[in-house]
Amino acid sequence: MLDPTSIPQVADNELLARYATRKDDVRADHTIREKLFIAYKHVELSVTRHKECTEEELWNAGHVVAAAMLTKATHQSIKLRGRADISAGACKPHGLDVVADPIDGNPNHANITNYPSDKSAQKLIALQLASQAKYIPLH
Amino acid sequence: MICIANSGLSEAAQQLDSFRQQQEQRESDTVTLAKADEQAQNELLDVLKECSESNWDGENAEPIEQTTLEISHAIIRDLPPWFPRPRVYAEPDGHICLEWYTNPKKILSVSVAPDEQLHWAALIGSETMRGTCPFYGSLPQTLQELIDRLS
Fold first, then answer.
1. Following DSSP, what letter does each residue of A70-118 receive, concatenated?
2. Most buried of the four, A12, A77, A136, B61, by CB within 10 Å?
């Protein structure tokens, strides 16, 4: 993982991971649903940068995300199922930014920001991002 | 009942065989449609069971309201029989998403909101479209036409 004392800006050629924790995040053919790429309420979408991350570290970060959701969710169908990998550069054509946002335990944390407020505009961007992302199931 | 094997010897036999095949196809289509209907309604029930409370996703999701469920149910129930049925899931802002998916280049996604607005986006080949329209008791013509284009 990145050195927490020296976090570089996110480059366009970096890969970002978005974790799938519900069974309806992904279709049966392993394509990704738009819901994984819409920033509800928070107006920014949490992702983990692949930069200087081992596979194990990437999956560990996903387990932490799922565990945090599970402790607060009212329904217990949440678990880490996989991740959607997308390049940071795929976000810019849609007017989005990717901003490094290191947090405790995850110096590779970043946010996809600048989503429009209109729901149909969010949906279209999310559909397009989802179509560009690659699903990696948890083994 | 007398079963006549198709030996292809007479025009009448061929017509009977064609009729039999059409009947089997209709029955198969009816079963497929019934299964798709059942799947959509079951997914709506799952939404009702799993997403009716606040924070159902562990990230402060809004609960799904009765109005949203009723509109979604009405849309699915009143789809023309030859239309494919959507997949159904809840969204953290309290909307219900109805998704018609054929392949990665043919998708229509409609979010049903509790204020009876339908927010939609579509990828059809190289075209991208989006919009918002009110629900007046049936699926708007715009969305029906888009569903038609997905097949």
1. HHH-SSS-----EEEEEEGGGTGGGT-EEEE--BTTBTTEEEEE---S-
2. B61
Alpha-carbon distance of B48 to A90, in angstroms, equals 35
Question: CA A49, CA B109: separation in Å to the nearest integer?
Answer: 28
Q: Which of A40, A41, A63 should be substituted to probe chain B, the one whose Cβ sees the most B Cβ atoms within 10 Å?
A: A40
- Indicate the DSSP class of residue B137: S
B119 φ/ψ angles, rounded to the nearest 5 degrees: -100, 125
Interface of A with B in 35-74 (CB under 8 A): 35, 38, 40-41, 68-74
Average pLDDT per consecutive 10 residues, chain A (139 residues; last block may be shorter): 94 97 93 93 88 96 92 78 97 96 96 95 97 95
Provide the residue count of chain A.
139
Nearest residue on chain A to B122, alpha-carbon basis:
A124
- By the 10 Å C-beta count (0-12 exposed, 13-18 middle, 19+ buried), B48 is classed as middle
Q: How far apart are CA B144 and CA B124, in angstroms?
A: 14
Environment class of B133 (CB within 10 Å of its CB; exposed 0-12, middle 13-18, buried 19+): middle
Of A128, A11, A9, A30, nearest in space to A84 by CA: A30
- Residue B12 phi/psi, 5-degree rounding, is -65, -40
Interchain contact, A120 vs B101, CB within 8 Å: no
What single DSSP character describes residue B49? H
Interface predicted TM-score of the whole assembly (ipTM), two decimals: 0.91
- Find the distance separating the first CA and the last CA of chain B, reported in whole Å: 39
